[in-house]
Amino acid sequence: MSSAALSLLLLTAAAGQVDNNSSGTMKPDELKYQQQVFKQWWEQDLVLKFADLPADGKTPDFRIPYSGHDYPDKSGGTIAAMRKYDAAFHGGRPMAADYERKDVGAHRGRFGYSGDEPPRRGLFGRILAGRDRTPGWYGHCNGWTAAAIRHAEPEQNVTRNGVVFTPADIKGMLAEMYMYSPTEFLGGEDAAINPALLHIVLTNWIGRGEHPVGMESALGEVVINYPIYAYKATITKISDRQSEVKMMCRYTLNTPQEYQKGPKQTQLIYFHYTLDMDKDGNIVAGRYYGDTQMVDMLWTALKPVQGGQKGNERGNPHMDIKEVLAIWRESVSEKTRKAWLNVDPTDEDRVVLDEAKPDAEEKPKEEAKPAEAATSAAGTTPAAAAETPAATPATPTPAGSEE
Fold first, then answer.
1. Of 59, 42, 147, whose CA–CA distance to 400 is shortest?
2. How far, in Å, are 231, 263, 291 from residue 206 at the CA level?
3. What one-character-per-residue DSSP string does 159-195 give?
4. Could you read off the pLDDT of 304-344 as tens digits, one per residue?
5. Is residue 77 within 8 Å of 309, Cβ to Cβ?
6. What stretches of 199-254 adopt beta strand conformation (E)?
7. Which sign does the torsion angle of CA 70, 363, 248, 241 carry?
8. Cβ(336)–Cβ(150) under 8 Å?
9. Predicted TM-score (pTM) of this structure
10. 122 φψ region: left (φ > 0), alpha (ψ -120 to 50), beta (else)
């Protein structure tokens, strides 16, 4: 969604800690789930010891999520990209486009929830049912965010059956492909994610793994997503078992339309909290300060599932994800594809990764970093955190490559 629509809770008190159900001790079940998730995708333990977690972290420059369009429902969603797909693969019959037209005009309930079974944990359980009309914020922000996490930005045109797909067309198809595809929940069961869990997830996934994560930024009913790719924390020790943290995270913004090459638009968000540690130095609890910003939840994208099939029942069944992934592969360099690692690879990805192992150490040359304005979403950037977060070497490595 547009940055103007970003709905973040910014408390006006300049000092003092916030007393709400998002602060305090982490829920045992929520922490246990994150430990299981990290073990599953990284084959390593989630680090909880505060002293062992990096104070700053960043993805490699070539891995920074691209700025893409969020395809608002009120503007027709991804219909234009679906028409292109129909022209190439359905002989011009508007199959994928008609499905998208009906989808963006429908009363969307809880994504992936039929009403008979409990709503599934994670991103799509955040949208409430019973809307009389499509709200202005509805769109494909989660589809773009997931695509930008898992894929390098398309670079060149690709032709299929006489139809030329531009980089903008390809990004539109990717956003549609990930609209209802599976995601992994990385914490946020309360009104806002607990600050202790926020710190643990960001420092493990980005700090140790150099892997972007999705941020569901709006508290409450509204759902607005962006990919976070960097953070920098200023830490003040209060006692042997308590520290104050001022963390600045940088995330990629969406664009008002899809460009052939998206402009690098980023923004900062500021978190301010206290962390409590047990006798072994493990993080056990956290409390927000009054000048903090808060977000609903964190998540990451998993491998796409064909629309209309189990795991992506709401997805577009008339767009073959294998065709879309093949088009994307042809649109980017082989060097980028070999270096771009993701969690949850497909079987085809594992084959590509095995073939690429001799070149595993060779990564695309990183672009020079453009000067970035150090302003947070609500103008609360501390001077000490004004610079772009620095990179930290990763410890864990996911077993997989980009599609």
1. 42
2. 8, 23, 24
3. EETTEEEPHHHHHHHHHHHTSSS-EEE-S--SSS--H
4. 999 999 999 999 999 999 999 999 999 999 999 888 889 98
5. no
6. 213-216, 225-239, 242-252
7. positive
8. no
9. 0.81
10. left
